[in-house]
Amino acid sequence: MIVVVKANAPEKEIEKLMEILKQKGMEINYSKGVDHIIMGLIGDTRSIDVDSIASIDIVDKVLRVQEPYKKANRTFHPEDSVIDVNGRKVGGKNFSVIAGPCSIESEEQILEVAKSVKESGATFLRGGAFKPRTSPYSFQGMGLDGLELLKLARKETGLPIVSELMSTEFLQAFVDDVDIIQVGARNMQNFAMLRELGMCDKPILLKRGMSATIEEWLMSAEYIMKEGNDNVILCERGIRTFETFTRNTLDLSAIPAIKKKSHLPIIVDPSHSTGMWWMVESMAKAAVAAGADGVMIEVHNSPETALCDGAQSLKPDKFRELMVTLNKYAELEGKVIG
Ligand code: PEP
Ligand code: MN
What we know:
4-stranded antiparallel β-sheet; binds manganese (II) ion; 2 domains; TIM Barrel; Alpha-Beta Plaits; 9-stranded parallel β-sheet; alpha/beta; 11 helices; binds phosphoenolpyruvate
């Protein structure tokens, strides 16, 4: 339930209203806008008499929220959320470009890719240290040694780092070492992990599960936010459909859908959604046009010998060209890569 309070309401009256609501067992999500104050009520709102709350002088209106997600709901928070990552912003007028290899493979590899994407204008560096592989016989990532190399690449380039957490066993290391913790598609509904991520204040990049509906995805964001961490960035990475030509089907319509239903920033991963490097440019451009707040792109200095996802990785020179194009597209959308 949402209680919309008039912006000019006296502080004392606001406090009185909040006290009434708290006494009814409600948790209040308070957000002050230019024209209104919005109180998002979380809890069992059945005991609340809408008419009696609406009749209070300072109350403009009372609305019931149909959706099961509350904190992630735009009705609770009409303005776009902008996530602060150590001073770098994701969302709003900023267009973020997260680039780097699927997996960290060696010091030489990660440093070379990191320097090249930085030179081309990427705003974050990605690299998997723990890899969720379909086959247990495939390369599983370098683990914590990989994370050390990613930190070295951050030191050399100044780019904040993004890496995927696969088990809460390493949560503290990720909280200490990375700038954005990625939750992969396969863990989107690992509720125990989401809950723990909600208890830290790190920005979380929450990828959409490959068979998850938009509502299920937002409910996963809600798990994190419920515990107090509002720093959630969504990432559309393609979903399973009957089509087998591409690795997944990029659901571009998820971008306006998320923008309508939620205030959280959303970025697009054209690499995992297509599985083919030559489709990445088209889908990245489409993502900007559809209103995304950023893209995440796999880049490798030697895709032919990559230990993971070489076929969908751009070479550094192709990435440089793509950045020139994305700068123009972002400008058309009134955004700046930064
Ligand atoms: C990744 O980004 O490295 C990854 C494994 O992606 P996803 O979870 O979307 O499959
Ligand atoms: Mn990958």
